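Researcher: Watch the backbone:
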Amino acid sequence: MWSSSRTLEQLKIDKSFVGDVPTDENDAAITRTIMALADNLNVSVVAEGVETVEQMTS
């Protein structure tokens, strides 16, 4: 159960999404949505498994 008294500082994107971002539109959409959520909540994002420029810019 979510409690508004808890502080959220960071969202993490699992490498299973990041690996296929350049070629899988669903993974790219999920990643963009997580990043937008983090932006709206004013928290940082960690993406596991980023290895290429394409993964960072998709």
About this structure: The first helix runs from residue 15 to 18.
